[in-house]
Amino acid sequence: MAMVADEIERLIKEDLPGANVRIEDLRGDGDHYAAHVVFEGFRGLSRVQQHQLVYKSLKGRMGGELHALALQTSVPE
């Protein structure tokens, strides 16, 4: 079963409090999403470390309920 965008956003915000999260369904199929995450807690972390935090927040759903997630992460300006 595919995930809905609201569930992805909720999981990320739950683990990264204060994050600004925007989710896009890239194909309209509920399997291919893009996530744009702006989070102060990313400051000083490498892009890989930032992405790892986001993937961790999805609690093992990547590759199962969620087939593909294109990530863009940044710190607030």
Q: How confident overall, as mean pLDDT?
A: 91
Instruction: Output the number of helix runs.
Output: 2
Helix content: 25-40%
Strand order of the largest sheet: 1-2-3
The chain-level structural class is alpha+beta
Which range does the strand content fall in? 25-35%
- Span between N and C termini? 37 Å
Low-pLDDT parts are none
Topology as H/E string?
Answer: HEEHE
- Could you give a short account of the major beta sheet? 3 strands, mixed
Radius of gyration: 12 Å
Number of strands: 3
Molecular shape: globular
Describe the structure.
The protein is 29% helix and 26% strand. It has a three-stranded mixed beta sheet. It has two helices and three strands; from the N terminus they run H-E-E-H-E. It is globular, with a radius of gyration of 12 Å. It has 77 residues and is α+β, with helices and mostly antiparallel strands.
Briefly say what this structure is.
The chain is an alpha+beta fold and 77 residues long.
Question: What are the SSEs and their pairings?
Answer:
Layout lengths: L4 H11 L4 E6 L6 E7 L8 H11 L10 E7 L3
Parallel strand pairs: 2-3
Antiparallel strand pairs: 1-2
